[in-house]
Structures are given as C-alpha cells and as structure tokens.
Amino acid sequence: MPGRIKALDETVVNKIAAGEIIISPVNALKEMMENSIDANSTNIDVITKDGGIKLLQISDDGSGIDKEDLPILCQRFTTSKLNKFEDLQSINTYGFRGEALASISHIARVTVTTKTKSDNCAWKVSYAEGKMLGEPQPTAGRDGTVILVEDLFYNMPSRLRSLRSGNDEYSKIVDVMGRYAVHSENIGFSCKKLGDSNFTLAIRSHAKQQDRIRIVFGKNVSSNMTEIAMADDINLELKSVKGQVSDLNFVMKKSVTPTFFINNRLVSCDPLRRSIYQVYTNYLPKGSKPFVYLSLLINPKSVDVNVHPTKREVRFLNQDEIIEKITTYLNEELSKLNTSKTFKTGSLLSRQLTRSQPVKSLNSSTIAANNASNASSLNKKIYEHKLVRTDANQRSITTFLKPNVSSSYDNIVKTQVIPSKRKILEESFHDPTIDSNNSEQTNGDDTLTNKILKRSTRSVMEVNEATATDDGSVNISEQTINEVEIRNSVTDSNDKQFNPTVETSKTDVDYEEESITQVDESKPSEYTIIDKKRTDVNLSSIKTLKEMVDNASHMELTNIFANLTYVGLVDPRRRLASIQYDLKLFLVDYGAICYELFYQIGLTDFANFGQINLCTENEESLTIYNILKSFEVLKDNEISIKSIIEQFITMRDMLEEYFSIKIDFIDKDQKDYKTARLASLPLLLKRYTPSLSKLPFFLYRMGTKVNWKSEEECLEGILKQIALLYIPEIITEDVDNNDMQDSTMIDSVKMTAVAKKEKMADLLENVIFPCVKRRFLAPDTLLKDVAEIANLPGLYKVFERC
Ligand code: ADP
Ligand code: MG
C-alpha cells in the first residue's frame, strides 16, 4: 500500500526551498554582496572560515537597515525592492525576490548588525529559521551592515557532506567577488580568511577597471585587452554592451570562464559564451581561450531571471539576435586589430617597464658605449626559435630604394649644410660640462662663455624692470603641443606669403659625420666649411636643465630607443611611426619623441647651433611684425605684439649667441619693432629644417610663454619653444587643396600630401630616428606615447595559421 499524501512540515519546506537557492557558501555570499551593492556601499569586506562554511561575514558601509524592519528581515518574500507583481518585471537592483536572507537563516545561524545614518547606535540581532531570536540590542557600530553567517547547512548534513573542501569553496568565493569587483567600479572589495593577515583580494574603491582586471585576473590578461563599446539597439531592447575582451596577443592555455553581467548581475549565458569563443577561434592560437568580460544592459522587462533558482542562468528576449549582433561587432573589432589598422592609445609598455636609473646622460660623452653595454646586459637570452632580424645596423630594404624625394620642398629650403671639420667633430664629442669645473672656478674664469653669461644676466636683469606684465609660464604640456598644431593648421595658408628660402650655414655641430654622407648624393654637395670653435658652456642653469633630463630618463625605454630598428611611418596625421626592438613591435608618437629629442639637442648643443638663414625676395615679409600681425586680433592676451617684439630686440644678443636666432632690421636707419626682421633660426639637426608654417606660433609663443625674468626658466622656455617648432608638422590629406587656393604661393610649395608624406618617411628613417638612436634619453613621460602592438613570435603564430 502506498503511503498517504501528507503536507510537509513548514520548516522542511523552507529548508528545501533554501537549499535550492543556497547550494554552497558562494551562493550566500553572492546574494549578500548584491544586497550590499543595492544599499549603495562603497566598500565591501568579506571574512571567511573554512571556505565560508563555518563562518562567512560580509561588512558594508551602505545604507543600513531600519530597526523597524529587522523583525521581518529574514521572512520569506520580504523585500524593500518589490511592491507589486509588475515591479518584478522592471526591477533594476540585484536581488529582488526577498528570499535570500530568509533562505540563509533557515540553513545557518545569522547575526545582523546594522546602523543607518539617522540611528544613534547600531542594532544587533540574531535569526534562526526566519525569526528573530530576541529583541535587537543596541551596540557600537559604524554606518552600514555586517551580516555574519555561521555553520552553514548545520541542519542539512547531506548537503554539508556534498560540499567540496574549504579551500575549494573559498576559491569560488574569491572568484565571484573578483568578477563583481571588475564590474563594480567605485566600490572597493576585500576578502580574506579569518586570522590571515593578508588579503586574498583587495581592490580600492577608486581603482580603475584596467587595474581591477589586472589584480583579479593578472597582468597577462589586463595587458592584452581591447575595449568593447556597442551602441544601443532599440528594436532589440538592448541598451548597451560594454566590456573588455582579449586582443590578439593574448595567449593563455588555462581558460577563464567568461564574465557576463546582465543588468548588473553576474550570470552565465552559455549560448553567448559559445558564440564568442567561436569568433576567437579565427584569431587566437589553437587551444587558447580568450578572456571575456561583457556587461549588457537590456530592458529589464525582457529579461527572465527566474529560470534558475540562484538567478544564475538567464534568458532574455531577442537572445539570438543580440548574440548575433555582439559576435558580428566583435569580429569586426578583432579583424581591425589583425590588420593593424587601429591601435590602442594606452601605453602597454608602462606595465612592463618600471621607473629606473638613467643610462645615458646628457652630461656624458660616452653615450654610444653606454648603449652598447646596456643593450647586452638588458637583453635576455634569446631562444633560437625566436630569432628574427633585429640587428638595427643591418640594412633595411628601403636603403636600396633610391630616394626620389629631393623634390620641390628641397628647392625652397635650399640646404647648404656645412660639414664640420673632423677637429670640430672631435671637439663636439667633448662636452666641457663634464669637466670638474665647479661654479666658483667658472666665475673666476674670463672665457668667452663667461662674458656671454655676464652679458646675458645683465640683459635678463634689464628686462626684469622693462616688462612686468609677463605671466612667465613656460609650462609645456602635451596639450600645448596639440594646441600649436591645431592653430597652426588653421592659419597654414597665412604664412605661405613668406616663401622664405633657407640657407644653412655656419658651423654644424652634429655629433657624427655619418649623417653627412646620407645627404642626397645626386646633387653636388653644397657645404661650406666654417671654422668655428665650439663654445664651451658653463652656465649652471644649463647644467641643471641637463641634470633634470638625466634624472627623468627611463632606462629601459631609453635602451629600446638606442637599439631600435626603424620600421616605418604609420600615420602622418597622428604622427605615428613604428619601430622594432628585440622581438617586439612598437607604435610610437614621433611628435612627442621629436619634442623631447630636440629639447635635448638644444641643451647639449646650446650656444653651438648651426644657423638656418632665412631670406626672401621681399624683405618685409619676414619682419617679425608681419609674422605676428595675425595675432593682433587675439584680444584675450595682454601682451601686445609691439611689446613682444621689443622684448626680442632687447634680448637680441643673447638670442643670437645662444640660440642662433638672429634679429636684424630691414632699415638700418629706423631700428624699431616694425622693422625688426627674423634673419635666422637655429639648426639643430643636419638635413632637417623645421616646418616654417609654424613660425608665427613659434615667435608668438616665445613672446608670451617664456619667462624672461629668470635665467633658467628663460633658457628652458626658449629651448622648449624651439623643440616645439621642430616637431614635424601634421600631414593631412587635404593640404594640397588648401594650397591650391593660395595664388601667392610659388609652385615649389605646392607639395602634395603624398610627396610630403614621402619626405617625412625619408626624414624619419634617415635623419630623425638615427639621431634618436644615437643620443636620445627617453623620459618617463614618454611611456604613454609608446605602445607595444605586437611581438614577433605572436605574429608568426598568425602566419602559421594562414
Ligand atoms: P531582496 O534583496 O530580494 O530584497 P533579501 O532577502 O536579499 O531580499 O533582503 C531583504 C531586504 O533586506 C532587502 O530588500 C533590503 O531592504 C534589506 N537588506 C539586506 N541586506 C542589506 C544590506 N547589506 N544593507 C541594507 N539593506 C539590506
Ligand atoms: Mg537580496
């Protein structure tokens, strides 16, 4: 005879229901953590014992629970988040069925300590089987809630037996917390075992997502990621898809379960996981699984979270279409990475390189030797299967292509570079500042430099009284560089009226003769040798500035530049070039590099620059007043064009002695600000003439941004302006169109963007990067302008699959 049907005892029903929701400690943890997040906490701390089985405590600094609500807190279906049935469909918070705490209290001993802002003290009360054990007791406590869960499954021995070891349960807890930590920016998370002094997981509330991923999933994951940001699709009730997924450099045999958040809840969604993995099989080496973190916001009405008691597996409307949309998007993004059309802007290098001691020194003459020794000591052993052509001195294929870019540009900039005599070259190797001259000796010395020094200090002093309006800021940030660029392009046509011809003359003090031989051999050499002894510079301000450069240099980055192999010009509009070092391919911002490089050249060759003579048929066009005229309209500046030019005139001697910036007057009889003419610019690097379209900005900024009152700031300011002038111009496609409209222009200026680009590529390869290799000290700040885009073994893998 079958037994009669009996209604089950209520406590048994509750226990069974609870057991469905809480299968292991991690389920309890997740529910409680979601409550804490709902309560707007900014810090969530978890302590466990025996994987959360013996003890699981979660503390938050959220809203707290009203004392009046405590009696029903652990009853089933009590929730502050749901009033009507309809709410169930549009609820946006994490938990919402009022079941979690009730369930936990049926299978564990629960103690709640909570304090709202308006309470004077905290209240503490324990629960068993959904009911309060006695009245809440006042106690000391901070705003927020602490929920202590002890002896989980004490009344369900079979469930207890089926649990895995404490350590296994603990790692599940850490895993879920880590995923919430990645997702929940602005919330700090910590987790540790009771009695341990170290945290297993610790993330500060203000940590950025990238850092969160690094802390939780490791560097390998965080440094090989690409961002996902999909627009909404109203038809699919899809509000947004955001996240981070592996890029193509990512190699990891151990796969990490994808992290999917749907409406801010960690869920699993197998169809989505399978589709995404499928996309990656085309990109990653066989057997390697990507890391995936995606956060979907879907209209809550179309999400069904009740298909699974723990709310872990979800279903949503238009599921197939949404998944399809995500995979198509992902495929596009990854294929872009694959053909290197887009590049990450963030510096991946910074994660690998730490700040370190400078290797080269501007005050040192043995740069080359330094490089060599550093290269060998830094290079790790290279395994044979990783061998690739990385010898920077090997000829690259482009050296066999005859440069046909002498072109029109060379004609207007009629370069007459003067090769220095070997004697001068040798002297230029010898940097006097490394001599043990101290400042006392310097003062007593009546050398030429000291005379100049004295004169310049005097003129600086004079200026002190003359111009009290100067704001004195010489603060050059990257922004200001961009600013120059932007304004530059605006008035590009403006300056074309100068049509200056440029002659380089005077001593060229570049370090090596080598660059001379690179000058286009098809043309007869137009060098004139001028005997000029290198001027010794003992200015303490220059020494200080050099030291600052030395101290700011980054050893590993400098080493990369010293041993680079130039690969090519990538994007002249964004000034990106790529270089290879060791087995890695880097994308670098050559604008930023040039800025630093020319500043450094300015410091080392200070007072010894060659000279670029500016001359035009129409003398007047080069008067400083004409060049600066267009700025007169800028009403916001207090400094008038007149005072700027007068400032230059006062500093004429200094500008010429130190910077080869020569100012003369077109009218010998009338020497005033209207007749002052810019006659020459400093030549910093043979074969490279700065873009003269920047001239107005150069002069304007020199007049407004340089602090002429303090020697050090003044020299630094001018050197920085010269460096800005020397940054290669941005080449945009429509350059030639603009030019065409300018009828005053001579033909040779009408250079197409293509020709300009070729010229730039040639310059970078044969002039700028060789110089970077020779003498560049890369500062820490440059890390952001260098991004690793591929490593060669990784690329080979891609080819292997093809
Ligand atoms: P639900 O989250 O589905 O509403 P729970 O049983 O998880 O149900 O929680 C019941 C109620 O207890 C919540 O609605 C909330 O008002 C309150 N609560 C629980 N935990 C916290 C907490 N950490 N901070 C503030 N309030 C909480
Ligand atoms: Mg809840």
Task: Describe this protein's structure.
By secondary structure, the chain is an alpha+beta fold. Among the domains are: 10-203, Histidine kinase-like ATPase, C-terminal domain (Heat Shock Protein 90, 2-Layer Sandwich), CATH 3.30.565; 209-336, Ribosomal Protein S5, domain 2, CATH 3.30.230; 540-731 and 749-787, no CATH class. It is built from 29 helices and 23 strands.
Q: What separation lies between the terminal Cα atoms?
A: 71 Å
Strand order of the largest sheet: 5-4-3-6-2-1-7-8
Helix content: 25-40%
How much of the residues is beta strand, in percent?
Answer: 15-25%
The secondary-structure class comes to alpha+beta
Which distinct ligands sit in these coordinates? adenosine-5'-diphosphate, magnesium ion
Shape estimate: elongated
**Helix segment tally:** 29
The biggest sheet amounts to:
8 strands, mixed
Count every beta strand, where a strand is a DSSP E run of 2 or more residues: 23
Overall pLDDT level: 73
* Uncertain stretches of 5 or more adjacent residues: 82-96, 340-359, 364-392, 399-529, 735-749
Family: Belongs to the DNA mismatch repair MutL/HexB family.
Protein name: DNA mismatch repair protein S5 domain-containing protein
GO biological process, one term: meiotic mismatch repair
Pfam family, one: HATPase_c_3
